[in-house]
Every structure is written in C-alpha cells, then in structure tokens.
Amino acid sequence: MAETTPKWLDWAREIQSLAQTGLTYSQSEYDGLRYRRLEEIAAEIVASHTTLTPDSILENFRVQPGYATPKIDVRGAVIQDGKILLVQERSDGGWTMPGGWGDVGETPTAMVAREVREESGYEVRVEKLVAVYDANRVPGARMEFYHAYKLIFLCTINGGEARPSNETSAVDFFDLEHLPPLSAYRTNRQMLEEVFAHFADPARPAAFD
Fold first, then answer.
1. pLDDT tens digits for 83-118?
2. Separation of alpha carbons 204 and 198, rounded Å
3. Number of domains in the chain
4. Where are the alpha helices (DSSP H) in 50-188?
5. Domain ends where: 17, 32, 61?
6. Does the pLDDT value for residue 11 go beyond 50?
7. CA 19 to CA 32: how far, in whole Å?
8. 186, 168 in Cβ contact below 8 A?
9. pLDDT given at position 141
10. What's the Rg (C-alpha) of the chain?
11. How far does CA 122 lie from the centroid of its chain?
12. Is residue 110 domain-shared with residue 81, that is, in the same domain?
C-alpha cells in the first residue's frame, strides 16, 4: 500500500517535527529562536508548493505543541451477510468504514466501538486487529502536516440500528464487487480486501507496513 510522497513534503514534515520537539525541550532563548526559524522554513516549503499562506501553515503547526509524535486514526470493519458496513462522509461525499481520530484517555477498542456507534448507529463488539498502516502513505491520502497511523479492527454487531450522524449522511452495507465511491484516504479497496481476508480466515495475522 506504500505510496511515494513528494520529497518537499517529507522534508517539511521532518523539519517541522524537529522544530516542534526542539521548542518543547529547549531552555535557551538562543536555541528557541533557531527552532522558530526552522518552523518558518518548513511553512515556507509547504507554502511554495500549495495555495496556503506561511502564516496559516504556522498556525496549523502550533495547534499541537509538545513532542512530535504520530496521531492515531481508528476504523471499525463490520461484515454482515457477506457485505461490509460503510458510512457516507458529509465532508466529501465518499464512503468509508466508520472511524476517526482517537481521543486521549480511551483504549483502542473503546475508541473504535464509540466511532462505529456515533457514525453508523450500530453497537459492536471488537474482535481483532486487522491492520496497522502508515496513513500518510495510503494511496489517495490528502496532504497532512502530521504523521498518522491507521488502525483497523474487525467488529461484530451486537445491537443498534442504521442511523447517520452529524458527520455521516448515509449508512449501508456493500459487497466488494459493488462498492460505492470511496473516501480513499480514509478507506480504500486494498483495506477492504484485507478485512474480508481476515473475516474468511480468523487466524490471519495482522497486516502492517
């Protein structure tokens, strides 16, 4: 599932990460000024390849201070009667396995069960980890300033009913041969094929990159 990212984006992410971590631990005003300059250089690199302004990029960089570390995206994979549960995102109209960013203080299984309930209306029991992917290298991924991991869990419905949310406009089940347009950076066909392979073979080990 690997996809080559532009070198300028790799450089900008690394420079921003170094600056963010340096600002977190530096106790010297001299060093702090230089880490701020590294942050500005990273913003200038991104701005030169996009329609964003350096100021707006810097504002984005500074939303999450502290040691630079990957974010976590969780997805719930639910198969019933040979079809997989997908929800339609209001933001782009594409379909995806229900899920989203993990919250501080929750276990991974609690996070994915909550996301499935909130986005689809179904209560689920989390069965196993299907895959861990580098979300920034998923084909179709949007440009993100932050590094992220995507965790996909196989789940079983044990209650609830289909119900859209403020983030989703529709809820339905699809087989692999009749998939709707996907929100590719959230869920793509390769992920769904991996989910169906795990459903068919409970002993299949988790995929990772």
1. 999 999 998 999 999 999 888 889 999 999 999 999
2. 6
3. 2
4. 54-61, 108-120
5. 61
6. yes
7. 9
8. no
9. 58
10. 19
11. 21
12. yes
User: What pLDDT does residue 2 have?
Assistant: 43
Minimal CA–CA distance to 171: which of 130, 124, 136, 110?
A: 124
Residues 24 and 99 in one domain: no
Q: Are residues 156 and 196 in the same domain?
A: yes
What are the pLDDT digits (tens) for 22-54?
999 888 999 999 999 999 999 999 999 999 999
Q: What is the average pLDDT score of the chain? A: 91
Same domain, 137 and 38: no
Q: Is residue 110 part of a domain?
A: yes
What CATH number has the domain bearing residue 203? 3.90.79.10
Distances (CA, A) of 147 to 13, 81, 136: 8, 36, 6
The whole-number pLDDT of residue 147 equals 80
**What does DSSP say about strands 148-160 and 71-80: parallel, antiparallel, or unpaired?**
parallel
In which domain, by residue range, is 44 found? Answer: 7-61
d(CA 50, CA 27): 34
